[in-house]
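Hi C.,

You asked whether I'd gotten around to modeling the 127-residue construct. I have! Everything is below, sequence then structure, no commentary in between.
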Amino acid sequence: MLRIVKNNRAQAVVGEYVIVFFIAIGVITAMSTYFQRVVQGRIYDARDAMVSLTRNQSAGYFNGNIFFHYEPYYQNTDSETYRSLISRTSLVEGGTSGIYRVEYDDLSRITSTSVTKPPRDADKEYE
């Protein structure tokens, strides 16, 4: 049985397949950076094309500047939190020493207001 396996010349093919597989994975991994740059470039060009088209179409109708960027992290959030907690403790007769009971009445209210700054005001603070 071992002689049949030992004399089988197709065993070297498995090693070649493994090497080709790892080379292919390495090439795909190395090229992923370039694929990501291509996609980002397409998005950048599409944004620029949309803004220039909008500027051309709105010429004479709109006074002001159309900005390229949207920065959601330039945000001013104002929150107001209210909480009321009332607890009642009582000892009711029963059992050997009584039954201890605690009742909680909880009220919570949170109000939040968020304002996103436009790019031209990104370095300014809102009042």
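If it helps when you're writing up: Residues 12-115 form one domain.

Thanks,
B.
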